[in-house]
């Protein structure tokens, strides 16, 4: 001890070394694997081998996207009939001690203008469940140009529809009952924009509770009935209502997962900037954490700028604990070297771990798996 007191440089070295160890003590070292990569058993085996080289602990594997299942489903159309991507991925990954989270697109169901012709597809079954904008126009009536102008991905369905809820819960239950997954991972657990909250299901639920149609809140009759204060109160309730409806769906999924197996983790990819998440997408995901309706989230912190990443994490700390937050970083818009430096600069944030988007972009940067295994996920 006397030697250490007399050697501040040694203290500095020890503190630096301990910080370095802390950097690699994260529980989750994850990678997102998109559905486009799951086209053959041989490709899946190659992916798992590569993830093992990178010391990945958790693989988030997309098994439901654009309304198609990449597993043997009874309710949704199945993309591959001659093999089961999820089954093969789980078998290979577990042999390498890699956990598998079934990544499911929650509300975003189709990404092309031409309507899908498979009768089992959710949009074919329940076209009235598609979201409606503030002009009372369904997304189904949008042209490709309108979709691009609004900067949205495609067709979303309503979290307020009981039919949609039952469909999603049944789909997730298929995975829980038939596959040895370690987690369920949700994506697009949000609205596509702040104007897309006028579907008949969400409006009906609001009318039942507040006795006024959201389209009529600012009407002359509403001012006569409720006064200016009453109208402002209703506008505030309407602003929060889509957030609560979405949270209710997350809650239902959480209790379904835990009823099947309390050890299975429920997570979701979420908007990293809490202000934008709330105001533009009605995704108050920190409430899901604080109220115990989800195990953890992965923030889509894809900016290559370390200052942006730190600002996002600082804002999150004002909303919830970082111990249930995984930082999702991007490898598609920066070098793996820069990504690694950013992760190192975030060492003092007590997050649950890091997750890279995506496996394909790691593959595109030759030698990335080995580099990630020796640096970020050492």
From TrEMBL:
UniProt entry keywords in alphabetical sequence: Signal
Keyword Nucleus in annotation: no
Record carries keyword Signal: yes
InterPro entries assigned: Divisome_Glycosyl_Hydrolase, GH, GHL10
Report which residue ranges the record marks as coiled coil.
none
Signal sequence segment: none
Q: Where is the Glycosyl hydrolase-like domain?
A: 27-324
A Pfam family per the record: GHL10
UniProt protein name: Glycosyl hydrolase-like 10 domain-containing protein
Task: Please name the source species.
Answer: candidate division TA06 bacterium 34_109
The beginning of the lineage is:
Bacteria, Bacteria division TA06
């Amino acid at each position: 001890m006397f030697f250490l007191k007399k050697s501040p440089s040694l203290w500095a070295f020890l503190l630096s070394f301990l910080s370095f160890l802390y950097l690699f003590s994260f529980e989750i070292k994850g990678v997102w694997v998109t559905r486009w990569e799951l086209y053959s058993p041989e490709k899946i085996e190659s992916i798992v081998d590569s993830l093992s080289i990178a010391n990945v602990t958790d693989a988030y594997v997309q098994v439901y996207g654009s309304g198609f299942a990449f597993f043997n489903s009874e309710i949704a159309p199945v993309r591959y009939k001659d093999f089961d991507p999820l089954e093969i991925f789980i078998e290979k990954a577990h042999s390498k001690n890699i956990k598998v989270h079934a990544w499911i697109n929650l509300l975003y169901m189709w990404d092309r203008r031409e309507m899908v012709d498979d009768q089992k597809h959710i949009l074919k079954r329940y076209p009235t469940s598609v979201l409606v904008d503030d002009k009372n126009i369904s997304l189904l009536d949008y042209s490709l140009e309108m979709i691009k102008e609004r900067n949205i991905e495609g067709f979303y369905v309503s979290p307020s529809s009981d039919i949609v809820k039952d469909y999603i819960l049944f789909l997730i239950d298929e995975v829980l009952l038939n596959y040895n997954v370690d987690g369920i991972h949700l994506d697009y657990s949000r609205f596509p924009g702040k104007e897309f909250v006028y579907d008949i299901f969400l409006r009906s639920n609001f009318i039942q509770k507040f006795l006024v149609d959201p389209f009529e809140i600012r009407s002359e009759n509403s001012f006569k009935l409720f006064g200016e204060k009453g109208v402002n109160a209703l506008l505030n309730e309407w602003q929060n209502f889509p957030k609560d409806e979405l949270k209710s769906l997350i809650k239902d999924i959480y209790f379904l997962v835990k009823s099947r197996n309390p050890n299975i983790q429920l997570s979701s990819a979420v908007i990293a900037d809490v202000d934008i998440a709330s105001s533009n997408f009605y995704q108050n995901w920190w409430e899901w954490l604080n109220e115990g309706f989800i195990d953890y989230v992965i923030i889509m912190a894809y900016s290559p700028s370390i200052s942006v990443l730190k600002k996002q994490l600082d804002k999150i700390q004002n909303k919830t604990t970082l111990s249930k937050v995984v930082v999702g970083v991007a490898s598609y818009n920066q070098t793996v070297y820069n990504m690694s430096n950013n992760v190192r600069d975030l060492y003092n944030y007590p997050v649950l771990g890091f997750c890279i988007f995506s496996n394909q972009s790691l593959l595109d940067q030759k030698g990335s798996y080995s580099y990630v295994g020796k640096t970020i996920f050492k």
